[in-house]
Specification:
mainly alpha; elongated; single chain
């Protein structure tokens, strides 16, 4: 992992922590009067979800930019220049580390083993992208799913502020959440897996077929050597050639 990526990871970690502890309480108090009346446990989750929304908007929009305008990555999904993808992934890694620390510090109220496993698996996968620079297109493509997160968090905000489910804003957000969730998490599946198959699986299958053919030829040659069949054919060929030479010599003498 290069110094630039490490700096972005560390900077994102610190930035999201400051957003959680400083910016979110002030911003939320200004735009949501009911924020100050929430119990401490909900205040923590509120701030956490606001940070989650900010992260989702940053990486989700950056992901779309890369998918639309980064020709190097789109032309070569496996080995394309991963510079912009690394930057986006580094931001996500910083967020995941921040969220793991937050979960550990508030385990009694927010602890969830599923999220811990999810974050660790994501850190492993994205860490591989940062250190090796491979499969940038696929790493970036997975981040498009973050665009549904703000609507999921907004649904929780409405519930925390006790908005009735029939409220127009709640209904509109619910419809938007369902539509966006489908578009960025379900509808993209065929396109994603088609790219995986073409760019990755197809080449692997082709290589395995070639390896199988080569192994067959090697095994066949080895079998001939061990059974002596190849040696007898060479010997018979040499004897036939020698006999032909003798016949030619005798005919010439006569």
């Amino acid at each position: 992992m290069e110094t630039r990526e490490l700096t972005v990871v560390a900077g994102s970690f610190v930035g999201f922590q400051l957003l959680f502890s400083v910016a979110s309480p002030r911003l939320s108090s200004a735009i949501a009067p009911g924020y100050g009346r929430l119990p401490p446990t909900k205040l923590t989750e509120w701030n956490s979800r606001l940070v989650s929304t900010v992260h989702a908007l940053i990486v989700g929009l950056f992901c779309l930019y890369i998918l639309w305008f980064d020709d190097a990555v789109n032309a070569n999904p496996v080995w394309g220049d991963p510079s912009l993808v690394k930057l986006n992934v580094a931001i996500t890694c910083g967020y995941l580390l921040y969220d793991l620390v937050l979960l550990a510090c508030n385990w009694n109220t927010m602890g969830d083993s599923f999220f811990v496993c999810h974050h660790l698996a994501a850190l492993y996968a994205y860490g591989y992208v940062l250190s090796r620079g491979v499969l940038p297109y696929f790493a970036n493509f997975r981040l498009i799913s973050e665009l549904s997160t703000p609507f999921v968090n907004q649904r929780w905000f409405f519930e925390a502020l006790k908005y009735p489910r029939s409220h127009r804003m709640v209904v509109l957000n619910g419809v938007a959440m369902a539509v966006v969730f489908f578009l960025v998490r379900i509808a993209v599946m065929p396109s994603y897996w088609a790219s995986v198959f073409v760019a990755w699986i197809t080449s692997c299958i082709a290589l395995d077929i070639l390896n199988t053919i080569w192994m067959y030829k090697i095994a066949r040659g080895c079998y001939k050597v061990l059974t002596g069949r190849g040696g007898r054919r060479v010997k018979e060929g040499a004897e036939a050639s020698s006999s032909s030479d003798r016949n030619y010599a005798n005919n010439h003498t006569d």
